[in-house]
Design goal:
The protein has 286 residues and is an all-alpha fold. The chain contains eleven helices and no strands. Helix 2 packs antiparallel against helix 3, helix 5 packs antiparallel against helix 6 and helix 9 packs antiparallel against helix 11.
């Protein structure tokens, strides 16, 4: 019986060991793939911004930041749930910064595009070829317009048609101005119309649309201010209640119900700002 029991225990130990090794290998492989994908996505997004950096240390840095935030939140007396939530939020910081930078770059491109179209229209009216007019924008226009037009000029020099180059520009810079530019060039090439005049009219329509958007944005600024004031009221109320009762903050930060209440409040704040943002975009688009 002892030999049989020892054999069973040995088989169980070997099976458990193999299971632990298999799970550990699977988790390590999943960790490696996730870190590689995380780094690759960040590198690809930065390359769209014409920023070329070696981001091999991005994942270890974010992991170190998440662990630091987790321990710091626990040291401040908050609950485990809030500490884990804030630690996981650290991994979204690079993506949020990159998305903000891409949106800002797209807005700058939209503001620069009408002036560039006016310049190209004037160059075409003076007898300059379209490729030479694009090259002038590459040399003298500010970034990001000069960067994107340099890609278009390089693609056309390598044999790609201008329509396909503009189509790829639409993919890189998805905005109404580039779509209008692509439609104008396509119609001008198919019908043989005066491209200089059509580009000038397109630039005029883009400027008018931009002015309307600015007016809508000015009208929505009051709504945004009200949203931030209303959103800051819960934090002000928390501060007042903590001054009135010293047991308020420890109960809010150090209990599961308090952490759940904080998360619920943060979700409602986020949904309110997201809703207002959608309304603002709808009003701006008319």
């Amino acid at each position: 019986m002892d030999i049989e029991r020892a054999a069973v225990l040995a088989c169980a130990g070997i099976s458990s060991g193999l299971l632990v090794v298999s799970v550990q290998k699977t988790m390590f492989e999943a960790y490696r793939r996730h870190s590689e994908r995380y780094t690759h996505d960040a590198t690809h997004s930065l390359s769209d911004l014409y920023v070329f950096l070696d981001l091999r240390m991005l994942w270890p840095t974010m992991l170190w930041l998440a662990v630091t935030v987790f321990l710091l939140v626990l040291w401040c007396g908050a609950g485990w749930f809030l500490a884990v939530l804030l630690a996981l939020a650290c991994f979204a910081i690079p993506g949020s910064i990159i998305r903000w930078a891409k949106a800002r770059r797209l807005k700058r491109f939209e503001r620069q595009l009408p002036d560039a179209l006016y310049s190209i229209s004037a160059a075409l009216a003076a007898g300059t070829s379209l490729s030479a007019a694009l090259q002038m924008q590459v040399q003298y226009a500010p970034s990001p317009l000069s960067q994107e037009f340099s890609v278009v000029a390089r693609q056309t020099r390598l044999g790609m048609s201008l329509e396909n180059a503009i189509q790829q520009l639409m993919t890189r810079m998805p905005c109404a101005g580039v779509q209008a530019l692509g439609a104008t060039i396509m119609v001008a090439n198919q019908t043989g119309g005066p491209m200089a005049q059509m580009l000038g009219e397109t630039a005029s329509s883009l400027i008018s649309e931009y002015q309307v958007q600015q007016k809508a944005s000015a009208l929505m600024s009051q709504g945004w201010m009200q949203a931030w004031v209303m959103g800051s009221l819960p934090f002000g109320l928390m501060f007042v209640m903590s001054r009135m009762d010293e047991r308020f903050l420890p109960l809010l930060w150090g209990s599961g119900i308090g952490n759940l209440l904080l998360v619920f409040m943060a979700v409602l704040e986020f949904l309110g700002l997201l809703w207002l943002r959608r309304i603002a975009r709808h009003v701006a688009r008319g």
